[in-house]
Amino acid sequence: MRKPSFVGRISFALAARLRLRSLPARSGRGVLSVTFDDIPRSAWTSGGRILAQHDARATYYLSGDLCGRVLEGREHYRREDVKAMVAEGHEIGSHLFHHLSTLSLSAARIRREIVQNDQFLQEVTGLALGPQSFAYPYGEISIAAKWLCNHRFKSSRSVMAGLNSAGTDSDQLRILPIDNAFADPAGFVSILQTAAQNSAWVIALAHGVDDTGHPYSCPPRAAGDPAIPGKGSRSGHPNRERSDERALGPAPVRGWSLMG
Ligand SMILES: [Zn+2]
């Protein structure tokens, strides 16, 4: 991916300071959500199987243009995978129709990309309501994108590492990266413990789930590590707790709740 232009970098810096809404205070246990971007097919064929073993659900952020594509030797999701995700209660989020940095797009183009992806996902799933969650491609956020996503989605996720808690920008949620390129498996448990102690929300982000060592994949063992609480310890997605509106998927998204 090319580097953002000077104007793009200014827009990103200003967008990071533009606060339109924040997460409310919440009490109780911490929450862990699992999210996948793009997505390489292994995130479903392998990641989905691991999630099922834990009776857990994830959010899959999809770009319609990547459906059925093979990029750098990696097969991406198929239409039937999306139907299966929805049938099994996973949330489908938006990642623009074309996987493009919002820093390179006009406001009008971003709006068209959002609408085109809504239409694609609604056509594939057969559901009337479009996705309710968004992830910025490459984690790059323009001022226009932030404003548009604030009005269109319940939340938007960045690729900035950190915990989410009261006061976190809902249009720039933070992540715990678990792809090989960024992951620190030794630090996972302490991060989860910190989140549990502070009733924080951890949003894990990966792309593929395989043993290839690809920088944008996590190994299946890490994804299913017994250190992560499993079956029977799930809770509601913070977004869903504040709304009766249904996501694109038929069931609320459920992450693992953390022990602590
Ligand atoms: Zn992406």
Notable traits:
260 residues, alpha/beta, TIM Barrel, 9-stranded mixed β-sheet, two-stranded antiparallel ribbon, globular, disordered C terminus
3D architecture notes:
- It is a single chain.
- The protein has 260 residues and is of the alpha/beta class.
- It has a single domain (25-257), classed as TIM Barrel (Alpha-Beta Barrel).
- It contains 9 helices and 13 strands.
- The strands form 3 sheets. Strands 1, 2, 5, 6, 7, 8, 9, 12 and 13 form a 9-stranded mixed β-sheet that branches.
- The termini are far apart.
Calculate the terminal CA-CA distance, rounded to whole Å.
Answer: 41 Å
Named CATH topology: TIM Barrel
For the record, the CATH architecture stands as Alpha-Beta Barrel
The topology string of helices and strands comes to HEHHEEEHEHEHEEHEEEHEHE
CATH class: Alpha Beta
Total domain count: 1
Characterize the largest beta sheet: strand count, sense, and whether it forms a barrel: 9 strands, mixed
Bound molecules: zinc ion
* Oligomer classification: single chain
Main structural class: alpha/beta
Arithmetic mean pLDDT: 85
Offer a quick outline of the entry.
This protein is an alpha/beta fold and 260 residues long. It is 32% helix and 20% strand.
